[in-house]
């Protein structure tokens, strides 16, 4: 087994001298106690071996190892020392230098970069540490670049020339693939991929497919963000560590960028020619396993008209012969839309489903990735914050999937915390740097004017400011990381969803303890109904209900206009903190048997198959919702068979075979059964005894209920709630609620509306009907109050308060 140093070095496309130099740079970083390998360590290594070309060029410029080391130690005072660290990662700037050096080498006709290319890359990167070290040493950048170019042209190169020109074994077999793709195994070898957690089963399944004799091309299917690419990266990491079967020990996974593949193919045949060359390279180099993310984009790519061969068609023969191996990844929808229809392509792959991880598994994934986030943002992230992030992302971010949405949530919350912490510090540092630059200029001017006394004073001032800068960096690198709290998570959720932060801050337990009080403020005259609903919801949130069933299932009974739908809307707002968390299904649209399939999606081959079900798709995208089946008695009997499955198991399977989870929903069914008999007998009225009236209504509704619904359906519902007829006092309260909306609109115009109790009673009696309940109240207020008010405003708005009273059997408007 190779040690970490060898693995890290061999991953780079360098000559042997280049690799030795990079290995030396790593050792220098470790000796200096630095936490990562940077460009300064590479420059230091380039000055240590007088036999390499880069060192000779630096020596000609009078740059010695001691000078570079002294500058690094002076400039790196702020870097935290860590002598114990063994596995050092390269900095982004060093990776940029390495990649750029390889590009320079290929531009000169070589496949491997030598030390001269490494030095040239440093000279072309002004924002790296090594560049500023050379700048402080007053080198002539133009002259040094010219020397490197001349040496390459006349052939005075180090061992790279022999390796690239004469030794055919070192010539890359896959130059096109190297240019278009990214070697994931190479990245894994020097620890540049994020670790992968909770995906061992999928990685093992891919490994088994790759080791098969036939159909050995895995195709990962899963929703966006569930970790399909992470699974492939996990396999690449196992390959880099040698933790795979012998058949895969010498293999490498290369990710193919479809954008790079298509880019620049302007003329007909360019893309096909490029793909054929790519296939040929993969056939010559048996170690390559292609990874194509979004593989469905290959279907139709390059085909200009019907019957033309697309990229997928070019891959089919090679896949059929088994001369190349491909790992694909796509979503289930795209698979069904593009690949499944092409039987010849589909049969070449073995599907591996990547399911969305559970909340518990997502927490473990975030715990594994926590250290990377903490190092990047310089914050602390506790387990409680990770748990809150998962819970809130599942509850409020509905159209994305775990673990992606939870990881994004934690990442942004950490960024918010870090920005708040460092903004003031950055302003102070900028002032110090500006002061230091001014002193540098003044010091240089004093030297030019031969004013040595002033130059010494300025130099002392400059050293004092430099010490402040160094102390600032030292404090910054050693200060205790600020913890990310749950409030930062809520802040991000509020930004993403638009839900007010104050609502998100309210504790769920405290809010639910007083749920019925909040419901009764908006649903008037139905205290028993709101109490029954609140009790069921509290049991569910306390974990006492059956966890395999929805949070609560209710049937609201009673005549129209007495608050059934209003209670459903209020529940969505109060329980889920979102007034839009209401999925309303009008069951009068599902009276025919053929309409029932629309709830779960049309069968394959029928119109609308690709759109998904009107019920299942909405719940799949909004799993925390109130599902309202309005006028359930009008639905076809087959609908009740679907609902039995939901009420029993909390799961419903759509037409595409996806299981939709209803366990976090509240199911509400409204019905007007018995209302016709009540209206016919004229039971409801203000003058009747309220208690006897309620008893008669309940008896009538129970009889109608038994005649309409099957017992096995009714027995699966948590609560069957009969809404009471509205008393006159309740109607008055509803009128006042509606008038309150009008008063708020008038207040924006600096006008005040007052309505006397007599006027409220008049509106209540005129706005209520036996047939429509309280629904006509809004129209009554529009006709009796808003219309006269609009005339007053247009005729003369020179008034502040208008009082509406009821005298002589009519409403009167008095302004003042």
Automatic annotation (TrEMBL):
SUPFAM superfamilies attached to this UniProt entry: Double Clp-N motif (SSF81923), P-loop containing nucleoside triphosphate hydrolases (SSF52540)
InterPro entries attached to this UniProt entry: AAA+_ATPase (IPR003593), ATPase_AAA_core (IPR003959), Clp_ATPase_C (IPR019489), Clp_N_dom_sf (IPR036628), Clp_R_N (IPR004176), ClpA/B (IPR001270), ClpA/ClpB_AAA_lid (IPR041546), ClpA_ClpB (IPR050130)
Gene Ontology cellular-component annotations: cytoplasm
Record keywords: ATP-binding, Chaperone, Hydrolase, Nucleotide-binding, Protease, Repeat
Any single Pfam family the record assigns to this protein: Clp_N
Biological process according to GO: cellular response to heat; proteolysis
Gene3D superfamilies: 1.10.8.60, Clp, N-terminal domain, P-loop containing nucleotide triphosphate hydrolases, UVR domain
Top-level taxon: Bacteria
Keyword presence, Membrane: no
GO molecular function, one term: peptidase activity
Protein's UniProt keywords contain Nucleotide-binding: yes
Residues covered by the Clp R domain: 9-154
Protein purpose: Part of a stress-induced multi-chaperone system, it is involved in the recovery of the cell from heat-induced damage, in cooperation with DnaK, DnaJ and GrpE. Acts before DnaK, in the processing of protein aggregates. Protein binding stimulates the ATPase activity; ATP hydrolysis unfolds the denatured protein aggregates, which probably helps expose new hydrophobic binding sites on the surface of ClpB-bound aggregates, contributing to the solubilization and refolding of denatured protein aggregates by DnaK.
Protein name: ATP-dependent Clp protease ATP-binding subunit
